[in-house]
Structures are given as C-alpha cells and as structure tokens.
Amino acid sequence: MGKTIFADTSLQDAVSELSSKKGVIIGLLIGKCSSQKDTVVHLVPTPSEQSGDSSHGNPSSVDSYSEQWIAEHARQVACTLPGGIGITGVFYSCQPGESSQGATRARQALFATFKLLTKRHLMIVDQGRETLDWCALHICQATKKTVCKTFNVLDHKCTARPADLKFQSNVQQWAVVQSSLRLDIGVHLGSAVADCSQYSKQLLARLHPVSQMIEDASALVDSQLRRGSDPLEGQLAKKKGGKKGGGGSGRSDGGVHTVELLTGKNDISVKPSSVERSSVKAHILITGVMSSKAFVDPKATVNDAVQAIKEDLLRSVHARFDLLTDDLRQNAKADEDSEEGRTAPPALIVTPRRVYARLPNSPIIVSDYAFAEEEAGEVAERLSELLDIKVNPEDLDLEAESLPDPSLLQPVTQSMHDINDPAESGKSAKSVQYMGVAAVVGAAGAVLAAAMSYLALSHD
Predict the structure, then answer these.
(1) 151, 189, 221, 369: which could join 452 in a potential S-S bond, CB 3.0 to 4.6 Å?
(2) In this predicted model, what pLDDT tens digit does every residue of 174-225 receive, in sequence order?
(3) Is the pTM of this model over 0.90?
(4) Nearest CA among 208, 196, 130 for reference residue 328
(5) Which residues contact 97 (CB under 8 A, 6 or more apart)?
(6) Residue 349's closest CA among 368, 330, 377, 376?
(7) β-bridge pairing 439-441 and 434-437
(8) 399 Cβ partners below 8 Å, 6+ apart?
(9) Percent of the chain scored above 90 by pLDDT?
(10) E strand or H helix at 43, and its extent?
C-alpha cells in the first residue's frame, strides 16, 4: 500500500498554475515527513541552471537542471526553514515527451539533495532508521493530472512506490517549539596562512565540534527533564505549556514549548585546543545568543521536539558560518592585486541578525538574515525570490535579534605574550585584532555574533 501525501487546499492553485505553464519546471516540496503521513506546506520552483534571463520563459529540456544544481538550491532553501520543516521531495512539471527524463532527474535530485543536506548537518536522521520516503511529484501539462511516487532516500537501490496526493482544508496542526543558544567560539589565525580565503578554512575547522555538541546535548523541555518517549502535549506539559495558538493565518493548535539544551554549560564553547608558538595574524571571536524556532505535530514526542530544535540550530549555525567564510573569500578575491589585501584579514566583520517571516496561509515561520546596513525591503525581496512567496517589509519580524551597541563593534588590539615568542610580542601586538561580530537578542538582551548568507547558486 502506497503512502499518502497530504497538502492544504491552498496549494491546489499552485499546482494548477504549474500545469498551465509551458516548458520544464522543477522544484522542491517543503513540509513534514513522518512514518504516519507526509504534509506538504509549500512548493518552491528551482531556477533554471542555464537561464540567466528569465524573460525567455522556462527551459524546454530537463537538461537545464542538474541534480547538483537542484540539491544546492535545496540547501539554500533548507537554511530558511525552521526545525521540523524540511525538504520532503521534488516536483517536475512538463509535457509528456519530457516525463521520462523528468522522472529520472527527480530521482537523482532526491538522493543528491539528501546527501548534501545530511553532509552539511542541515537535517537530522534518527540512527537505526531504515526508511525515509521522499516524494517525486509529476505534474503533467497536457492532462493536468498529478502522479506521486516515493523513494527511500536511505537506499540507493530502492524502487519507486506509488503514493497518493490529497488536498484537505486545515490539513495539519502545529505545536511551536522555541529555544535560544549561546555560542562562544574562538579561532586564532596564524601568519603562515596566505590570505583571507584560507582564513575561511580555519573557521570551518571549528564548525564540526560545534555541530557535534549540539547533536549530543541533553535538553530540558518546558523547564523539566522529561523522557524522550513522553508525548510533548502531556498533561503536565499542558498545565505549564504556556499560551495556545501561534497567531497569524493557518493552524497552530498545539502549545508553545521551550527547549533548553544542556551542554555542560549554558553555552557552546569551542576554544583552540593548541596554539603554535608563532605569530598570530588575527583572532576571530564568534559569541552570543541565537534564537531558534521549530514546528512539530502536537502528538509528537519530547524527543521529536528536541530533535526539531537541534535541527534548526544546526541549520542556523552552518548557514551563518557559510556567510562568514564567503565574506572572507570575497575579500581575498577583491584584493587579489594587493599584497596587503592577500595577507591581512578585515579589521572587523559585523554579522547579520535573524529576521523572521511567515509562509502564506500557514503558521510556519521562515527566516533570512539582515546586515546592519540592509533595509527591510531588501530582506523581503530575497525571501520572496528564494521561496517564491510574497513578502512585504511590514510582514517581517525584526525584533527577534537586534544589532549590538556600537561600542561592542570596535576592533581591539591585543598583546599575545602567552602565544608568541617574547621577542616578537611587540610586532604581534600590531597585527592581532579582535574581529568582533555582534548582535543582541532583544528579549534576552544577550550578545549574538553569528551570521547567515543568502548565496547565489553556484557549482562550488
């Protein structure tokens, strides 16, 4: 018996519009995947790999979308999604003559996307799980009919299984889970490093232990240490679980729950394990508190809620590191003709704050990240383009994270007597700078120093 994929009736118009267009359109299914049922909350078309000018319409061949291109688009989309919500499949809309190639490309894209998202820690898969069925949805432009098939992305040798797509009103209820996490990550950059592009490698080396600590952390749910198998909406949770409803359109009929990760401290701290006795070019400090949101079924377990929050934090950390390393690479590229530019890091890197918006006709929250100099309209435009939704500047939640006091953004010169040879300490003091990054969470008044990028599609 095949799986049933449920979608809200509001998505019928989107499917109908896709079937009425000409050319090949491939995109992503966004929603919640579970063993009981799949829920689709949004469809996101993937831009054509070869169409620099969209005025010529959609491409006529599936070859305009490679599986790596679709997976990269999925990675960027996943970074905007809250925990508990993710990529659940791929759709392709085409004429009958392209359907066979479309089916092949969709299957390839499913496995490429799953591989990339797990490699980049953008989704969490339960250990020991043997099946994870993702959907390939075919929308025929000639007959206007849809055909669903599922593939177990944990098994490359799997065969397609039939599935049904059903549209229902108010198809899903949601419980909201929220959290915050403090980061305290220090990275020393040695003078032996050639240029800014290699500084990014030093940062990425710090990313794995941060991810591991998040994945391994224990958690309090609603200020209690609860068994993972307990229902999230248990009687005790209902008494202490806070207000009902999530506001806005759509249904959020579960409670609002808080998860606090326990990592031995109240924060995630990663210090350089050892420092060579050589000149230090710079010290990057990423410190502060990240806000986090996730959405789960009210019937979910405590473990489901904790996993969803961890998933959101992992996405946020990785996306922020991507922006920081990309910024360093861009600095190196811009100054490639300058010897000083190739060897000196920027004096200061100010990272952006997290900005939330709501999916249309849904309580689900998505997010982007805004630099200090960016206007709300720029953020709204980015989200609109990436997720194919209409976002107005006034729809953005700009209060979750705010920028720090300007005094926190001043570069600091340090003496490194404990690291460098004493004879070199005077010279080192001139070259070592604190590359401060900060923003504060308005509700908690804490410092935030992480970053996220909206990156253009690339083959990198």
Answers:
(1) 369
(2) 999 999 988 777 777 666 655 666 667 777 777 888 888 999 999 999 999 9
(3) no
(4) 196
(5) none
(6) 330
(7) unpaired
(8) 442, 443
(9) 49
(10) strand 38-45
